[in-house]
Every structure is written in structure tokens, then in C-alpha cells.
Amino acid sequence: MWLTNARVFDATGAAARDGRAILIEDGLIAAEDQAGAVPDGVDVIDLAGRTVLPGLIDAHAHVFATPPTPDDGAEPLWPGLTAHFVATGLREALRMGFTTLRDVGSYGDEVITARQAMRYGAFPGPRLLTCGRIVSATAPGGRFFDGMYREADGPDEVRKAVREQVRRGADFVKVMSTGARSVELEDPHPAQLTGPEIAALVDEAHRLGYRVAAHAEGLAGTELAIRLGADTIEHGMYLNQRPDLLDEMAAAGQVLVPTLSCYYGVASGQWTAPLVRLARHNLAEASRTLLAARAAGVPIALGHDWQPFSDAAVELIRLVEHGMTTHEALLAATATGARALGLDDRLGTIQSGKVADLTVVDGDPLTDPVLLRDRAQIWLVLQRGAPVAGAVFDNSAAIAANARTAADSRSVTHTSALSNAGRPRSGTTETPG
Ligand SMILES: [Zn+2]
């Protein structure tokens, strides 16, 4: 496939370039160069100056759906209902240009089931990495989020909890190094697990080849997570008070996932008054930490951490509102997201050899990031080189108009590729283990 007449943001740190073409072969990016003569035997899509980004990555998603509440007297809900809403959310995330999600905690085994369903072509959705259950100490959160945690105490049981997630099919391990500010009974300030427990968790995960994401709020647990080698620090909002720890993260290449949207969510939602007050305070702390981490050279990845999980672009806009340049925020949603997931050898940039997960935006998100929340502007999403979603699919008139553009430029027809793409293809959401 030949994508031509494109504005390309390649996420290598270079400025966006106009008049480019991308050659895709076998689901990979074969070349990215100035648009020239159409190679023989390719399907062509003329992007008419639209912007191509690497497929967007949400490094902190909670992939679950809240079931509807039936009216009194309505038929009770069937047990399998929620899974359909999870599928709808995944389909919508892909539609919004997010080609990869890292699920950092959801209920039961619905995410693992959805991942399998996508592998067999039941519906199109993003590449999905999951932690299985979150490993936590015995703590109030386990009661608040029934089915999301694996509570474990003592280094040996923590080690077993890691092995259980691997057995379940997890792609990485998530640990609660502190309590959560969404649980009134939890105080995030003391570390929730001890040093020996976190050390055992990191050792077991790394020994088996899995990365570790650490929920980290209070500085005691955050310090343990950083010093004991967690690969990503989730939230970490008080780190502005510990520049020494930010320097250690930068030196070790540990990625910070700031999750601003979560503070907005709790500050404005139906939460208890103390949690609302705390969320407002935490937003100010997280904002200071974002700037301090950026200044210290800590890699920063986008993590939405709110619902609906398909609306992750709102986090990108907030990263900009809180001081990142749009270019930096787009890197957080692409190259650094891939780095957070340990997939930067395959994802996150538009470079030869990378997987052709691409998001085509009508307009320029570098000057107007708000476009990324607008369904109508997400023109085309490609997954492993196959067009799978986007506004161009939403009405046949748009497809016909694009076909005419291609015909006008005497290019090989691409309509077969577009019309085939509505059908899910097995294998397109394979998740590297
Ligand atoms: Zn979260």
C-alpha cells in the first residue's frame, strides 16, 4: 500500500513534513519518503495533505464497562451483557485512532476474553496489553474493586501472585506500591507493600521477562518502586517534591505516566467530599510534577486513567494545557507510550521496519490537538497496514469521493482495501507477549 500526499509526524523528534509518502509491505512500514512516482502494484490512498501519526497509545487504560441499570420491573441483566459493552468500547478506541491500549486493571477476566475474541476476528479493536489482576497488599481497595486485585502478603505470596498473572496470560505486572486516592479508606502515604515484597515482585516479573508498572502516589511507596526497578511509575504526582527521584528515573529510563484526567474525574464526579478535595490538591501537585519531570528529562507517556476509555485523547489535550508542547504531548502518545510498554522496537514511530499502525487526521493536530477528540476528524486508522476504522468508513459518499481522488491521480485503485477493511481480520490484534 502506498499512502501519498501526506503530512507526516513520525514521532522521532523531527518536525512534521508535508508532501510525504509511506510504503507499507506485509503490515510493516517499508519506507517513508518524499512523495514521488507510485511504485508498481500497490494500492494507493491519496491523503490530500492530511496528517499521519503513529497509531496512538494509551499507556494507562482501565478497560471495563459499567453495565446499565435497568428500570424497576425491567428484565434483569444477563451475565454476558457487560462483555458486549467492553467490545463496543474497544471498537470505539480504535475508531478514535488508539491502536494500542495498556490495561492496568479491570474486572475479572473480561479483558483477557476480549483480547482473545479480537485475535479470532470477533470484532476490531486496539492491540491490547493487560496486567491481569493488580498485585496488591491485603487492603481496602480489594474490597472496593472486587475482581480487579490479587491481594498478596509476604515476598513468597507476592511471587506466586506474579506467576498467577503470567498463567492467566498477562503481558506485564501491575503493583500497588501505595494506596489509591479513589478509595476513602486508603492512605496513600505509607508504602502499601514492604521493600522485600516489592523487590520480590520486580525480581520475579523481570526474571520471567515481564515489565512492571507501579501504582505510585505517596512518596514512600513511590521511592521503593523507583529504587527497586519498576519500569513505569503511574501517577507519581508528588515527585516534584523529590527532584532526586526524578533524576534517578531519568538516569534509569523509567517512564512516568501522569494520568491528569483521573484527578479531573474525581474532582468533578460523585465522590466523597474528602476525595474531591484531595483530587483538586493532587491535580496541582501532578501539574507541578509534569513540568519538573519534563525539565529533569524523565520520559513521559500518555495515560488516560478514566472512562470512557475510548476518550483517551482528552489526556493529550490536558498534557498541553498543563505545559507540554503539542509536539511533546504527541510523543507521549506515541514513541514514549511504546517505550513504556517495552514495544519501542516495533511501535510508536513512523520508520522503516515498524508495524504500520497509523492514524490519519483530517487537519493538523500539532496546531490544533482538540481535533483528536473529534470523531469526524479521525479520517482513517490502519492496523498492521490494513485500513480498519475512521470517518472515511462512516458513509459511502466519503469512500466514493476518495476513490475519485485516487482515480484522478491515475493511481491503482485502493477501494478494495478500504471496503475489505470493514471486516475484522484475525491476527490483526495479536499482542506480543
Ligand atoms: Zn489507574
Automatic annotation (TrEMBL):
Where does the sequence pass through the membrane?
Answer: none
Q: Which Pfam families match?
A: Amidohydro_1
Q: Name one GO molecular function term.
A: hydrolase activity, acting on carbon-nitrogen (but not peptide) bonds
- Tell me which Gene3D superfamilies the record gives: Metal-dependent hydrolases, Urease, subunit C, domain 1
Q: What are the residue boundaries of the Amidohydrolase-related domain, all occurrences included?
A: 51-378
Region annotation Disordered: where it falls in the sequence = 410-433
Entry-linked InterPro entries: Amidohydro-rel, Metal-dep_hydrolase_composite, Metal_Hydrolase, Metallo-dep_Hydrolase, OTAase-like
* UniProt-recorded name of the protein: Amidohydrolase-related domain-containing protein
Native organism is Kibdelosporangium phytohabitans
Tell me the lineage of the source organism. Bacteria, Bacillati, Actinomycetota, Actinomycetes, Pseudonocardiales
